[in-house]
Automatic annotation (TrEMBL):
EC number: 1.1.1.62
Source organism phylogeny: Eukaryota, Metazoa, Chordata, Craniata, Vertebrata
Keyword set includes Lipoprotein: no
InterPro entries given in the database record: NAD(P)-bd_dom_sf, Sc_DH/Rdtase_CS, SDR_fam, VLCFA-Steroid_DH
Cellular compartments per GO CC: endoplasmic reticulum
Enzyme class at the top of the EC tree: oxidoreductase
Top-rank taxon: Eukaryota
Entry protein name: 17beta-estradiol 17-dehydrogenase
Amino acid sequence: MESEWDALRALGMFTAVCLLLWVTWGLSYTAYVHLLPQARRGAPWLRAHGAWAVVTGATGGIGRAYAHELARRGLNIVLISRNLSKLEHEAKEIERLHGRVTRVIQADFTGGLEIYEAIKAGLKDLEIGVLVNNVGMLYVPHMMKILDCDNVAKRLSDVINCNMMSVAQMTAIVLPQMVTRRKGVIINISSVLDRRPYPLLSVYSASKAFVRSFSQAVGAEYFSQGVIVQTVSPSIVDTNMTRPMKFQQFRVSPEDFARQALDTVGLTSQTFGCLSHAIQSVLVDLFLPSWFCLSRWGVKFLFLFGVYSTKSEKAL
Ligand SMILES: NC(=O)c1ccc[n+]([C@@H]2O[C@H](COP(=O)([O-])OP(=O)(O)OC[C@H]3O[C@@H](n4cnc5c(N)ncnc54)[C@H](OP(=O)(O)O)[C@@H]3O)[C@@H](O)[C@H]2O)c1
Ligand SMILES: *[C@@H]1O[C@H](CO)[C@@H](O)[C@H](O)[C@H]1NC(C)=O
Ligand SMILES: *[C@@H]1O[C@H](CO)[C@@H](O)[C@H](O)[C@H]1NC(C)=O
Ligand SMILES: *[C@@H]1O[C@H](CO)[C@@H](O)[C@H](O)[C@H]1NC(C)=O
């Protein structure tokens, strides 16, 4: 009897120590990545990877903020998105504000393989140090079951091409020269929804899980060849994508977000981008655990109290 209690006590102690170590490690790592300015790599370090940065979805939201922040840190910028007049306007802004050279490429990432030849041609001869795979779309105007949106087939194809195909193809275009030079940074903008399935945003969260998984695996493949791959998983950033959502008070501006997220490059291969988003993610996991969201009641709960403040809008 006595010895059984001793064994249990030892097991309890062991578990408590493991938990304590785990929590301490998590807190120290978070502090290292987000709070220690002296740990950060400076602009010269980033610039040393190559003269140019390529940003997809660069005319709005997070992509635009990354483009400006990278230019401010001394890189020339290639902007890629759909609308030529927006591209030209943003390129001029970058040249005016940061004095860097720019180039624009018009492309619609909902397209398939056919769009990448032109992108490849546009990037030829450039020494690309940083690629930001940012373009991405939600496929529904609010949380809904997959069959409840109209034009399902087109929507699925658009979101999969835009969120997944773009990341893989763009990486394949830029990676060879990075490997040759043994230098390069690839940043994939994923989402906080990438770590588990979210009913009513199923295709979006699955596409972001692809981004995360792909980035980690390719990062491991090319780490020894000098290429750094980072997955950034933001929570809510104040952009057009999140305008119809609730939780205004938790938003981070895209400019603040890009600055803080770029400071973590070279320190961690996976990040929420900024400290407040890291904390939000822990809270969501605590209060909305996966088993609950995937249960019958969880889906009802998400439908009633999900992140969108309006459900009146008709499908996009
Ligand atoms: N905002 C957030 O809170 C949040 C949270 C988690 C993850 N994310 C992710 O962060 C990324 C950027 O989001 P955001 O909120 O910044 O988006 P956004 O404000 O909607 O900006 C989208 C940008 O991408 C371009 N774009 C959109 N569709 C395109 C297409 N089919 N082909 C080419 N370019 C296209 C747009 O320019 P044009 O109109 O000129 O094409 C614009 O420059 C996405 O991958 C998103 O999933 C955002
Ligand atoms: C939202 O889209 C409009 C129209 O394209 C643009 O003028 C505006 O700057 C965008 N806002 C953000 C925060 O990107
Ligand atoms: C491009 O953006 C401008 C400015 O936001 C807008 O006026 C124009 O209609 C857009 N063009 C296309 C083809 O969407
Ligand atoms: C992310 O980074 C990896 C590493 O290079 C790259 O292969 C991949 O295509 C990028 N995009 C996604 C969506 O993972």
